[in-house]
Amino acid sequence: MSDVPTLDIIIVSYNVRDELDACLHSLTTRTNEYSARVTVVDNGSTDGTVAMLRARWPDVDVIAHDTNVGFAAANNVGIRHGSGELVLLLNPDTIVTPHAIATLVAALGTGGHVAAAGPRLVDGHGRAELSFGWDVNPTGELRQKWLMAAHARHVRSAVRRIDRWSRMPGPRKWLSAACLLVRRRELEAVGLLDERYFMYYEDVDLCVALRRRGRTVLFVPRAEVQHLRGRSASSNPDLARRRRESQMAYYRKHNPVWAPLLRWYLRSGLRQEA
What is the span of the domain harbouring residue 183? Predict the structure, then answer.
């Protein structure tokens, strides 16, 4: 990696015009030291997102799809559009704080074995998210689900535990693609994001692929990014179904022994909802 690496920032949008505008504003002074290109891949928004981008952000590359092709596929379009040494995958409902990008870039520069780096994500009130986790299997997912549910209910022990973990740097099994900096050569070596995931689990799958190449996925809490979680996802009425489909795709690929049990569990849950 060169001393001043080139950087592609890829943002996938879907009916989040105002949040995207705020995200782009937060980037305006964060990339001055790099040769940076920002590309927004819009997945068929109907809220005037593309018109806003062309009117307010003439220096941003805009790729407008007629339909929603999914998060992984849209990111891949943006990645192929650029040529930077580093690629920052960024959600449109994020606010990038000062020095966050520079801190992530510096973390990748610690050695060629580090393929990806992610920041500490916090919500609008400064509470840490559990934006990293364990191996995705029934045990790991139950643990993650319990902690996130307790955190959402403001259970003090869960809030404290996640806050403590979110301040501990080091390798992780996976990191959230809400903000994830990756070396382009590593992305290309694993074939970019797996497009069988329409939404969710594509970041976990990517991190698995990178680690299987002997690379490190590094959590860097000194870099902090605000994530106004769920605002982009809330505009997708098929969110729950898409999550289930991606979960099944992940288990078929990585945990085939557990896939039948997961299928039974998901169908059981759907019958109870009905």
Answer: 6-231
**Mean of per-residue pLDDT scores for the chain:** 90
Pairing label, strands 35-43, 61-65: parallel
Angular region, 227: left φ>0, alpha ψ -120 to 50, beta rest: beta
Please give the Cα distance from 216 to 79 (Å, whole number): 21
Judged against a pLDDT cut of 70, whether residue 2 lies above it is answered with no
pLDDT digits (tens, 9 = 90+) for 128-147: 999 998 888 888 888 888 88
Structure tokens given for 1: 């990696």
| 271 found inside a domain | no
HSE (CB half, 13 Å, CA atoms) of 179? 30
Does 158 map to a domain? yes
Structural domains of the chain, count: 1
pLDDT at position 4 is: 79
Residue 57 lies in a domain: yes
Distance CA 116, CA 141 (A): 22
In the predicted structure, residue 236 carries a pLDDT above the cut 70: no
Helices assigned H by DSSP within the chain: 17-27, 49-56, 71-81, 100-108, 138-152, 156-165, 184-189, 202-212, 239-254, 259-273
Please indicate, yes or no, if residue 175 is contained in any of the structural domains: yes
Contacts of 269 (CB under 8 A, 6+ apart): none
Angle of the 156-165 helix axis to the 138-152 helix axis, nearest 10 = 120
Asked whether the beta carbons of 223 and 176 are under 8 A apart, the reply is no
